[in-house]
Design goal:
Length: 434
């Protein structure tokens, strides 16, 4: 930990990136790990290999220290390796590492379900635990189908809800969907994200009736899109008028990322079903669906569980979540996110005028997208930032949106310094305007 301190340090590079050890490990990955999931870039070039992380810092196997503006896909909302989470996991590991899934419970499972039921903006909620975000979306879909007896689902474009077959039917990107198109549900109807609510109302008025509308309150992976104020509330009202369930996919946005505890809180919306994950367990794999009691009653039927997993509500993950939630739910953290987010927004607002590669910026809280004029410009900006010790990722349907989602606990001077380096990267990769 000598190279990380408390995780609030600036970058420090000792080798070119990726360094020699990262390159050697990349060769091992290329030999033994399956392509597509082996972390190597297209063409099989070397990748950065992480060795240690704390706070907003990542240390690679070559001793290079980075500032992480990805927070591990949003998982490390409290920073990497938060002390309270680490301590809770260590304590639990000395008692019970693994349980018996949906057969025998453990105390932390009951405690966490009760804690989440208090926090989520769902009326009379019951909690269905999941392994991942995609798994949670599958559970929400199955709940809607069971509870309503209807088949049609409304999704929006762009959207990202996961890559398992049920969730993939909702995810909009053709590159993800087309190899499996023959096996995806034909019952999904897609509308443009942030479309006029009247379009949804007209669709819901038709036949056959719609079981659920699934929406990201703020689009994440597919480009960081923030809907107009009040849009989500109008969508919710249209769903209520037709008995259609509103499913909020808050896998990325839950627990303070956008400056409110849940992104739906900004519009005062209480969905019928809400999916959360990523930040929930402070770095361990855990997700959940909160649904109204009467909807979740649809799962009460004889025989074995209709949706389960060996590692569901894993004791170590539950311990981690119970340690993380007090801070994730604290008003002080939400106030901090809003304040830092406003400062980031003011700074980024000038980037389209300053940098030729930048077309637009948008976001809320500590979730920001920097839209580049081309995928090549985004790729160059990500590489130039990495070479300056700052990690960020580009995504979206065309790979043009570089995303800034640091740990919510990042030190202010660390965040400011990282943005300085991003500006240097943008100037170097795309040129500054005269």
């Amino acid at each position: 930990m000598a190279g990380l301190g408390r995780g609030d340090l600036p970058p420090r590079l000792r080798t070119p990136v990726p360094g020699p050890r990262s390159r050697a490990l990349s060769r091992a990955l290329a030999r033994h790990a399956a392509p597509g999931i082996n972390t190597l870039p297209a063409g099989g070039g070397p990748t950065l290999v992480w060795d240690e992380a704390r706070g907003a810092n990542v240390l690679d196997v070559d001793g290079n220290r980075f500032v992480d503006l990805t927070s591990g896909f949003g998982v490390a909302a409290l920073g990497h390796r938060p002390p309270a989470v680490v301590a809770a996991v260590c304590r639990q590991a000395g008692r019970l590492v693994h349980g018996l899934g949906d057969v025998h419970a453990h105390p932390l499972r009951a405690e966490l379900a009760a804690r989440l039921a208090v926090l989520v903006p769902v009326d009379e909620p019951r909690i269905y635990f999941a392994i991942s975000g995609g798994d949670a979306v599958e559970i929400a879909l199955k709940t809607a189908l069971l509870a309503t007896g209807r088949r049609r689902i409304v999704a929006f474009a762009p959207s990202y809800h996961g890559l398992t077959l049920g969730a993939l039917a909702l995810t909009s990107r053709p590159a993800f969907r087309s190899p499996f198109a023959a096996h995806l549900s034909p019952e999904v109807v897609r509308l443009p994200y942030a479309c006029p609510p009247a379009e949804l109302a007209a669709l819901l008025a038709g036949e056959p009736p719609v079981a659920a509308a699934v929406v990201e309150p703020v689009v994440g992976r597919e480009g960081i899109l923030v809907p107009p104020p009040g849009w989500l509330a109008e969508i919710a009202a249209a769903c209520r008028a037709r008995g259609t369930l509103l499913v909020a996919d808050e896998i990325l946005t839950a627990f303070g990322r956008t400056g409110t505890r849940f992104a739906v809180d900004a519009d005062g919306v209480r969905p019928d079903l809400l999916c959360c994950g990523k930040a929930l367990a402070g770095g361990l794999p855990l997700a959940a669906v909160a649904g109204q009691r009467e909807l979740m009653a649809a799962w009460e039927r004889g025989g074995e569980a209709l949706h389960t997993a060996t590692f569901v509500a894993h004791p170590l993950a539950c311990a981690a979540a119970l340690a993380a939630l007090p801070r994730l739910a604290s008003p002080a953290l939400l106030t901090r996110v809003r304040r830092l987010g406003a400062a980031v927004g003011r700074r980024l607002a000038g980037w389209p005028e300053r940098f030729a590669a930048v077309a637009a910026v948008r976001g809320r809280g500590l979730l920001w997208g920097v839209e580049m004029r081309s995928a090549a410009a985004a790729e160059a900006a990500v590489a130039a930032a990495r070479d300056r010790g700052v990690l960020w990722l580009a995504g979206g349907p065309e790979g043009r949106v570089a995303q800034i989602l640091p740990p919510l606990t990042i030190a202010e001077r660390q965040l400011a310094g990282a943005l300085d380096r991003l500006e240097g990267a943008l100037a170097a990769s795309g040129g500054a305007r005269a």
